[in-house]
Amino acid sequence: MAIKRRIGLVALVFFLGVVLGSVVGEVIGILLPDGSVIQQLFVSGSEFHVGPIFCDLVVFTFTIGFSLKVNLISVLGIIVVAFLLRLYS
Predict the structure, then answer these.
(1) In three state form, how does the secondary structure of the chain look?
(2) Could you tell me if 17 and 77 are in contact, meaning their C-beta atoms sit under 8 angstroms apart?
């Protein structure tokens, strides 16, 4: 039971850190001048895709897909969220 809770916590930390870091990185990228090295450091990153997977069931059709963009600030976001969760738990 503790292992499931631990895996869930790791997934939550990863997800919240990536979301928080991506938002902060994009805001910093907007505030910095275009084309600068610092802006590229904050904005550029790796993007991972899964899908899209289409399922046509005659009555309805749905599409499932997932995309994740990770940059430097996303990694820092994961570290900050992990530290905060460890501090408050």
Answers:
(1) CHHHHHHHHHHHHHHHHHHHHHHHHHHHHHHCCCCCHHHHHHHCEEEEEEEEEEEECCCCEEEEEEEEEEEHHHHHHHHHHHHHHHHHC
(2) yes
**Domain boundary assignment for the chain:** 2-88
**pLDDT truncated to tens, each residue of the chain (89 aa)?**
555 667 777 787 778 877 787 788 788 878 877 777 777 777 777 777 887 888 888 888 888 888 877 778 878 877 887 787 777 76
> Which residues does residue 87 pair with via DSSP β-bridges, in sequence order?
none
49 with 64: CB under 8 angstroms? no
Distance CA 66, CA 30 (A): 25
Tokens of 62: 């749905």
Can you give the pLDDT at residue 3? 59
